[in-house]
Amino acid sequence: MENNGSLLISLCVVARNEELSLPSLFSDILAQEYPHEQMEILLADSDSTDGTKACMEQFAREHGEEFNRVLVVDNPGKTLAKGWNVLLQTFAGDVILRVDAHANIPSDFVRKNVECLESGESVSGGQRPCVLEAPTQWQKTLLLAENSLFGSSIASFRRDVGKMYAKSVFHGAYRREVFEAIGGYNEELGRTEDNEIHYRMRKAGFRLCFDPSIISYQHVRSSLKQMIRQKYGNGKWVGLTAGVCPGCLSLYHFVPFAFLLGILVTTILACVGIWQLAALMWGMYALLALVMTVACVRDENWNVTSLLLPFLFLILHVCYGVGTAVGLIKLPFWKKGHHGGLSPAMEQVRILLNQKSN
Hints:
Layout: E1 9-15, H1 22-30, E2 39-45, H2 52-63, E3 69-74, H3 80-88, E4 95-98, E5 103-104, H4 109-118, E6 123-127, E7 130-131, H5 137-147, E8 164-166, E9 173-175, H6 176-182, H7 193-203, E10 208-215, E11 217-219, H8 224-241, H9 255-271, H10 276-296, H11 309-336, H12 344-357
Parallel strand pairs: 1-2, 1-4, 2-3, 6-10, 7-11
Antiparallel strand pairs: 4-9, 5-11, 6-9, 8-10
Helix pairs in contact: 6-12, 8-11, 9-10, 9-11, 10-11
């Protein structure tokens, strides 16, 4: 299906120490069906200590004339939120399209986002299954856990739930007027900056269209240690964000924390002779973990390490719950040094974008 490129697309990538992932992503960008002269590629290096910036600059030198523009900028603030704000102050397109550095996009990715936006939407996004490069049997099991609704979350971008309006999208495409209305990212948040900005979009009246025909792929953490660190960090930022923007979170974000509380309470009760609640809770959890393990494993995915899935679920849930508990404990002290969830950079981006439009 052809698209004449009526919209100028600003495809943006923020990266830190991603020299191994970027070549694959750059190949995907070059393969896009959407007219390259109607795409500008904006790359932000977050003070990398490897060859990330050199990789970006090489891409700009070799392919700058193929696209409308290829620009490499610095993100001295290092965080994703600060990087996105740098690019929001730089982009010239009608649409800004966010893509993570450790991701892959099919050749129709830009085109399908444009088609969705041209149908009348302001924000579009689609499915984001996780993948592994050259996986081992153990990494395949980690992937099963990450892609499972039980092991990760029920967010719509993880599966095909049909076209709908969602609370959040992954690898989203946003019309310029969205950021002109709400401003930039909250630079005081980590891991939850997407939740917060999508919440502000919804409050401003913009709808986030989830289109399952749009697909991109995220590289899952390749070791249990990395996955544990990720889940703990996600949980911690949920706890911190609960004190500054509770409306941008959903109840499912707190399920691991509730599970952790359940473990503590039933264990204490069991120590004083009331063991029935502990038996009920662990029995229900074990049954659900076994059912979800069976649901995860297909003949083509089965390997002996898949038997560890129930224990892997438990580890990930507890780590996420501990992270949330730590975030809630640190919340009062963290808020003292912040602006109550209102980052000055958010308004600065909005003012600059409106000045450019005028």
